[in-house]
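Q: Here's a chain of 354 amino acids. Please give me its 3D structure as tokens.
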Amino acid sequence: MCGRTSCHLPREVLARACAYRDRQGHQRLPEWRDPDRYCPSYNKSPRSSSPVLLSRLHLEKDADSSERIIAPMRWGLVPYWFKEADLSKLQINTSNCRSDTIMEKRSFKVPLVKGRRCVVLADGFYEWQRRQATSHRQPYFIYFPQVKPEQSEQVGAVASPEDWEKVWDNWRPLTMAGIFDCWEPPAGGDCLYSYSIITVDSCKVLNDIHNRMPAILDGEEAVSKWLDFGEVPAQEALKLIRPTENIAFHRVSSVVNSSWNNAPECVLPLHLLAGKELTVSASSQKMLQWLATKSPKKEEPRTPQKAEPDVPQWSSQFLQKSPVTPKRGSAGLLERWLKQGQEEEPVAKRPHTQ
């Protein structure tokens, strides 16, 4: 399953991380819709708002379905058939959608048939491993293995120095398959866009942590096919929904257990917080180096702009803002982590169970 994520990247950086090529082969950045409603966080939970990628054709008639939009949406799909004004009365959990029953439940089948497919963006997600003979559950942070800039495929696509800033070659966001829907309040008003993350059986390396995982779209081709509902029908797109072994993970502190905690400690490897001197993988070094220099900062408010005609307005309901600020010692811990770096990255091991 997937019940908690981290997505702390500033919106401009997130857009650069999602650079893509359209149907004509032109390199582009997805356009933000309602960017001021995006709240970066190390600890996002259901009913909060998270950024998703979707085809521009969902919002603009006659648009190219290969063009992309980034928009904040509520995590936890609100079904079209729900008629109560109070969303707390929705008694079903729609934060996740099982791939094996997606065509059996109308809450998910209807938006899927309509082509309402999206890609949920995150630094990574959290999962809790149950320990045998104890009530303790160990949290893990799970993410894509990170590639050094000189190994990145995107670097080779840069045609000139001016194009360099358009290509983000640092942290690779996790791209999870999702479906979304548009719910109209009974009393009228702006539509509420919400989504559900599709889940599959866990891959071999994660099976000891949990038996379910998000359906991760690994690579630009998979992301493109999933989003392009104008060219790729639902049945063909569903073939992309399967486990991936291309994943990295490490143990983290129980500070992440509370969704109110929003700080770098949520993603820091556990041994660092415990003061232990252990070997660190190159992938995790890459992540912490990025966090040390690119932690989210409060942005200056922008002048409100008039909404475009015939474009749905994204609801600001249920945006979760954490009152907990990062601890002062976070930067020092990150610096300690970076000093432990090694050139070689060890092969990821299966988590130890007791």
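Q: Can you summarize the key feature?
A: Confidence is low (pLDDT under 50) at residues 150-169, 276-281, 295-328, 337-354.
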